[in-house]
Amino acid sequence: MTIAVRSFSSARGLASDSPARKIPVVEIITPRASDSWTLTRAGEPRGYIDAHQLRELWIHTGTACNLACPFCLEGSHPGDGRIPGMTLSDAKPFIHEALDMGVGQFSFTGGEPFVIRDFVHILDYASQHRPCFVLTNATDPLLKRKHQVLPLLNNPYPIHFRVSLDFPDAARHDKDRGDGSFNKALEGIQWLHDQGFKVSIARQTDADEVPAEVEAQYRAIFRQWGIPEHLAFTAFPDLGVPGSEDGSPEITQSCMEKYPTRDSRAHFMCTYTRMLVKKGDQVRVYACTLVDDDPDYDLGGTLKESMEQRIMLRHHRCFACYRFGASCSAPA
Ligand code: SF4
After folding, report:
1. Whole-angstrom Cα distance, residue 237 to residue 214?
2. pLDDT tens for each residue of 81-136
3. Ligand 1: which atom is nearest the Cα of residue 287?
């Protein structure tokens, strides 16, 4: 799973390099103070977000993945069951509830969505109703399902794939993703593009990078592969593994005076998105794509109910939204 930020060069500073600064998961999911949901550790009222309108519904397909990247925001790896696989019958009622609420797009993340057996059926169903956006590593799980993915081009709404290609350097990409992953991802990108799907790239950032230079290196590789050079990039910071704490400042109500109006808060994903997460046999609605490791962001069993909940900006990843305008959504 990946995330985009408007300005990321200093975002890596959000994550501590020191294991000593990590706070165990148990401290994240139990109160740190007498009322840690509404008050900061210093006892100040927390900043919060009230939702506007559901524009985008994310569906978490499950944390199983064919790869085991150590930096994964979701802690995904082969056979992982922290979040079980979503089925079409799980997702269907929420797809219809979202349509009734005027949703504009369905988006999917994992794990690797194509590892999940029912995912292509969910994608088929969703793209009958709205444009879809899929985060994928575009390696074997996708390549083995070409015969199922290709017919989706004929559905009424388009499907946009955002493929993770961490660095414009095969050895560096493969170091964490496994030998051959870089070339496999390029094969997937090339195939998706050649069939007529929209494709963009999710990449990682270096603190001292010059984005134009990095992206020129990608374009040189795309030329070698016959992939168009105009593919959009989104770059993301290190957001930590699930249950981690990066020591980011807490967001108070006074901090939120920086965003006094509804329009100025519109870049917080929780104003316009929700994410479905399977918990055991049930599907729950979480505030956004970044907080599925904290049960306080479980906003209920229906989308309508979830949009009525006030969201306190307690999770350490909320600071990325506050400071950098983080968004998982598709680039324009
Ligand atoms: S990380 Fe926090 S601020 Fe950002 S969208 Fe999610 S709940 Fe909202």
Report:
1. 15
2. 999 999 999 999 999 999 999 999 999 999 999 999 999 999 999 999 999 999 99
3. 7
Among protein residues, the one whose CA lies closest to atom 4 of ligand 1: 318
Would the CA dihedral through 280, 124, 72, 321 be positive or negative?
negative
Determine, yes or no, domain membership for 46: no
CA 309 / ligand 1 centre spacing (Å)? 13
Total domains in the chain come to 1
> How far is 50 from 118, CA to CA, in rounded Å?
33
| Within-domain flag for 124 | yes
Whether residue 264 is contained in a domain is answered as: no
**What residue's CA is closest to ligand 1, atom 2?**
318
Range of the structural domain that residue 220 is part of: 5-12+51-248+270-312
Which pTM was predicted? 0.87
Distance in Å, CA 13 to ligand 1 centroid: 18
Cα–ligand 1 centroid distance for 49 (angstroms)? 8
User: Are the beta carbons of 81 and 280 closer than 8 angstroms?
Assistant: no
Residues with CB under 6 A from ligand 1: 49, 268-270, 287-288, 290-291, 311, 313, 315, 317-318, 321
CA of 248 to the centre of ligand 1 (A): 14
219: helix, coil or strand? Answer: helix
Residue 228 has which token pair? 């168009």
Q: Under 8 Å CB-to-CB from 60, ≥6 apart: which residues?
A: 83, 86, 109, 110, 111, 275, 276, 277, 278, 286, 289, 292
**In 3-state terms, what secondary structure has residue 76?**
coil
Tell me whether residue 325 is in a domain: no
Determine the atom of ligand 1 nearest the C-alpha atom of 322: 3
268 C-alpha to center of ligand 1: Å? 6
Q: What is the CATH number of the domain that holds 107?
A: 3.20.20.70
Summarize pLDDT for 290-316 with one digit per residue, the tens: 999 899 999 999 999 999 999 999 998
Residue 230 tokens, joined? 């105009």
Compute the distance from residue 147 Cα to the ligand 1 centre, in Å: 37
- DSSP 8-state symbol, 102: T
